[in-house]
Amino acid sequence: MKYRLFTLGLVGMFALGLMVSNVCLTYAQSQGAGSSTYKIGIVDVQKVMDNYNKRTVEVQKLEAEVNKKKAEIEKLRETFQNELKQFQEDRANMTEEERADREAELDNHALTVESAVRQAEASLDRQQRRLKAALVKDIVDAVNAVGTEENYHLILESDPEKRTGVLFYTTTIDMTSKIIERLNKK
User: Fold this and answer.
1) What is the C-alpha separation between 154 and 38, in angstroms, rounded?
2) CATH 3.50.50.60 holds for 37-185
């Protein structure tokens, strides 16, 4: 009899425990804390960058700028080469003082050409960094917008060329094309 009362007591406590846990679970789910599914996405940022129309347009503008600077520098080099050639032809007929003056002028002209090359390279490097930063910001903003609109809990970066921490994922969570589409709508 004691055993039977003990068993009934255990069953009753177990049933009470189930009821309490069910109430707690229902409350937690109603609060959003009990959701057992998470929405996770993967974005190949390099693929997005390669297929972003704005990048193509901006790179073409940058290449035009590079070609313009190359032409300017080539013109300076040609002028320097012509002056150097003329100096070498006239050198024998110059006095020591004239020769020294012309050599100083040529040295200054060579420094001017070198300085123009360094300035052009520095300017283009700055423009490339600014462009990359602007494009990355656009991509991050698009990822954030899609993540917020579609209730993602986590979006990871995947790049097969780099170690991003994502070694494997199923294509069902790859949202790269969705990001490319969103960016190219602008």
Assistant:
1) 8
2) no
Q: Tell me the CA end-to-end span of the chain in Å, nearest whole number.
A: 79
Sequence ranges of the domains in the chain: 1-36, 37-185
What pLDDT digit, counting tens, does each position of 155-182 carry? 999 877 777 777 677 788 889 999 999 9
Closest CA to 25 of 16, 34, 17: 34
pTM of the entire predicted model? 0.68
